[in-house]
Write a structure and sequence with these properties.
Elements: E1 4-8, H1 13-24, E2 28-33, H2 39-46, E3 53-57, H3 66-70, E4 75-78, H4 92-111, E5 116-120, E6 134-137, H5 152-171, E7 176-182, E8 184-186, H6 196-205, E9 216-221, H7 222-234, E10 242-245, E11 249-251, H8 252-263, H9 277-283, H10 288-291, E12 300-303, H11 306-312, H12 319-332
Parallel strand pairs: 1-2, 1-4, 2-3, 4-5, 5-7, 6-12, 7-10, 8-9
Antiparallel strand pairs: 9-11
Helix pairs in contact: 1-7, 4-5, 6-12, 8-12
The structure holds NADP nicotinamide-adenine-dinucleotide phosphate.
NADP nicotinamide-adenine-dinucleotide phosphate binds next to helix 1 and strand 8.
Length: 338
């Protein structure tokens, strides 16, 4: 008989897959949403045994609700954190909820006697703020969030993971903390309210990105990310651990090539042309989304996930499958016109 686990951010993309796997494996799940007005809709999408799933209202910016959500839980998977699809006005709009929310969840977890706290960080906390070039990153690396040009999201994930680790070292008592650090998460889309990471495939598929800047990222499947969380919740000796969750590094043009090769006419709008670096720099003067990628032009950031494979027996499915499944769901949900 598995234990009771608190999964924060139950309305989220990764959380949905995680909650389904946990319930299927016999766990009882407490989950948070910002407002219980969303409970019915999220329950319907999750479509799991409702007797094993309980909802609580809790916002990263407020203390209310966290203690109730943690009561009776032995494990926590903390996923809630803002992940915007576009540019934000102030870095603190992301940094404050990410950092303070993680600390709120940790304090409530400790007070409730939680044993294991798995936090969803990101490769954003590992592989950025380093300058351009070809790099291979491991769990030993940390992003420098103070480096000029580092995006607010990258800052938020780095600062939040640092703060969580410092708090656990100073005040965590017996709590076992570890982080999962995924790269860009793709795969089946289960709702019209999809994660910002999926927007990348949507923009390539629907032709709204007419030419492709020379940028890329590691890609990982949402089902594999959920599975790694479950492994980290269950395995012994996780205190202080950090696990990169990533498949191969792909440029945008690689993703477009995969879509065209696998989907044929349905991917006819996927661009074939590259957007020259010089043009990206000029357009970035007017376009905040392009401004955010200027510092990434030409960079290759491999993220080595061998630690999760060696320690937790984690496996990843072929990246082509994740990309095609993302695209097929976007087409089937009518989010991209056929
Ligand atoms: P998502 O679908 O946008 O989920 C984010 C979740 O955080 C949502 O449930 C959202 O609630 C919640 N949230 C945001 N601000 C909140 C606040 N102030 N109070 C309470 N809840 C709040 O994104 P996701 O892809 O599943 O991301 C889950 C986690 O994985 C995040 O920590 C993210 O940084 C991390 N991650 C994601 C990726 C990726 O490529 N998707 C990669 C690496 C790491 P609402 O539904 O109410 O907005």
């Amino acid at each position: 008989m598995a234990d009771t686990v608190m999964v924060s951010g139950g309305s989220g993309y990764i959380a949905g897959f995680l909650i389904r796997q946990l319930v299927a494996e016999g766990w009882t799940v407490h989950t948070t949403v910002r407002s219980l007005a969303r409970e019915a809709a999220v329950r319907q999408l999750l479509a799991v045994d409702n007797r094993r799933l309980k909802f609580f209202a809790a916002d990263l910016m407020q203390d209310a609700g966290w203690a109730d959500a943690m009561a009776g839980c032995s494990h926590v998977a903390h996923l809630a954190s803002p992940l915007p699809a576009g540019a934000v006005k102030h870095a603190d709009d992301l940094i404050v909820p990410a950092r303070d929310g993680a600390l709120r969840a940790l304090r409530a977890a400790k007070a409730a006697g939680v044993r294991r706290f798995v936090m969803t960080s990101s490769v954003a906390a590992i592989a950025y703020g380093r300058g351009r070039g070809v790099h291979t990153f491991t769990e030993a690396d940390w992003t420098d969030p103070a480096r000029p040009g580092t995006s607010p999201y990258v800052q938020s994930k780095t600062i939040a993971e640092r703060a969580a680790r410092s708090w656990v070292a100073a005040e965590g008592g017996g709590i076992e903390y570890c982080s999962i650090n995924p790269s860009v998460v793709l795969g089946p889309v289960w709702s019209r309210d999809y994660s910002a990471s999926v927007v990348i495939v949507k923009k390539i598929l629907d032709g709204s990105m007419p030419a492709l800047p020379d940028i890329g990222f590691g890609v990982v499947d949402v089902r594999d990310v959920a599975d790694l969380h479950v492994r980290a919740l269950k395995a012994p000796g996780m205190a202080g651990e950090r696990f990169i969750a990533s498949g191969p590094f792909l440029k945008l043009r690689d993703i477009a090539d995969i879509l065209r090769a696998q989907l044929g006419a349905e991917a006819a709008r996927a661009p074939t042309r590259g957007l020259p670096d010089v043009l990206v720099r000029v357009l970035a003067l007017f376009n905040p989304l392009l401004k955010a990628v200027v510092g990434e032009l030409g960079s290759v950031r491999h993220q080595d996930a061998s630690h999760a494979k060696a320690v937790l027996g984690w496996e990843t499915r072929p990246v082509q499958q994740s990309i095609v499944d993302t695209a097929r769901c976007l087409l089937d949900l009518g989010l991209v016109k056929r």
